[in-house]
Design a protein that fits this description.
alpha/beta, 7-stranded mixed β-sheet, 5-stranded parallel β-sheet
Length: 371
């Protein structure tokens, strides 16, 4: 497996670049004022997204921890930590995409770190699988998002670091500290660099907590907000009922946390074009892109889909969508947050810097995306 970190160059197996010959003082610092990590800080990765973990470790200036994960022929997962972690501050980067596999793997790694006497174990979960099952909508349904929280705590996680939960109340499901980051400023920086005219930010779903996220993007871009009133007659099925706000003659940016089957985005984009929108862009933090999502997006009026790399793209998606897809790296944000947690510094300050993530300009964000 090969990965391509933000700074360029191909690295095997999610490893960070070699630090030989580089002075330690040059590895971190800058506008955020991060001090150098010590040997007690270690970053590990599961098999869900080693490319992201490698980029996070490279940004911090440390190698990815040595961890063996393999599957037995009956499907069981074997984990062996291949270095001393006694007394260390351990971070395991594992988005729970394909949750039935990656979630169990995360739980096993957390348990292994705890039993190996790590001082603190932080689960870095860029994408929180099962987050959409956060409440009962009818009788005899589970609240799976709460179940996942219980499992992480029981496995031995001392802290959770995650990005753009589907619903903010999931934070309350945890009885351990949870740091909730957002990729919205990164997306805002990208669109600001494009210098689009007459922008309106559109929330494609008024019923699932998306309005605060879309409002944040609108505030960062200095744009008005519009809202799509949508009904969902069945899971993964949506239909547009009404659009609240003025979109005629404007460049619309649809902002959501997840694009899964793309039905919500595609139907909203068609409605906006019918109402006179000049151009439609789609933005999300988590590009699940399951089922017929790519076919729907390619056949839709959406000019460009801009996403973050919290989870890996499904095989073949980048090649099929080509210039209509832009992936922005969230590795710097996660790396800066990990160092701040390690040093007991404020995460809130990280999310309220004047520049997105403090040290990166809008032009750099647009130029240094994953693709």
């Amino acid at each position: 497996m090969k990965i391509r970190p933000r700074h360029g160059g191909w690295l095997p197996n999610g490893a960070a670049p070699s630090l030989k010959g580089r002075p330690r003082a040059s590895l971190r610092g800058g506008a955020l004022g991060l001090s150098l990590p010590d040997e007690r800080l270690k970053v590990f990765t599961g098999r869900a997204h080693p490319q992201l973990a490698g980029a996070v470790a490279a940004h911090i200036g440390i190698p990815v921890g040595e961890l063996l994960i393999e599957s037995f022929q009956d499907g069981e997962t074997r984990v062996v930590i291949q270095e001393n972690v006694r007394g260390v501050d351990a971070f395991i980067v594992q988005p729970t995409c394909r949750p039935n596999e990656s979630l169990l793997e995360l739980l096993i790694v957390v348990d292994a770190l705890r039993r190996a006497s790590a001082k603190r174990v932080t689960a870095v979960v860029p994408y929180y699988g099962y987050g959409r099952q956060d409440r009962k909508t009818r009788g005899r349904e589970p609240i799976t998002a709460k179940l996942i929280a219980n499992l992480l705590v029981t496995a031995g996680a001392d802290r959770v670091l995650t990005v753009d939960l589907h619903a903010g109340q999931i934070q309350g499901f945890f009885d351990i500290p949870l740091d909730h980051l957002t990729g919205v400023p990164l997306l805002a920086a990208y669109f600001a660099h494009k210098r689009l005219s007459e922008v309106v930010v559109v929330c494609p779903d008024a019923g699932e907590g998306g309005i605060p996220r879309a409002r944040r993007l609108a505030e960062l871009l200095g744009a008005p907000l519009a809202i799509v009133d949508k009904r969902r007659p069945a899971p993964n099925v949506s239909e547009v009922v009404n659009v609240i706000g003025t979109v005629s003659g404007k460049t619309a940016i649809l902002m959501d946390d997840i694009i899964d089957t793309a039905g919500t985005i595609v139907h909203a984009a068609a409605a906006l074009i019918d109402l006179g929108a000049r151009e439609v862009y789609a933005a999300c933090v988590h590009p699940v892109l399951s089922g017929q999502a790519v076919n729907r997006l390619l056949a839709s009026p959406v000019a460009e889909v801009v996403v973050c790399n919290t989870i890996p793209l499904p095989v073949g998606v980048a090649e099929r969508m080509q210039a209509r897809l832009r992936v922005l790296s969230i590795a710097d944000l996660l790396g800066d947050a990990i160092v701040r947690v390690h040093e007991d510094r404020s995460i809130t300050e990280l999310m309220t810097e004047a520049q997105p993530y403090g040290h990166r300009s809008c032009a750099e964000v647009a130029r240094t995306g994953v693709r």
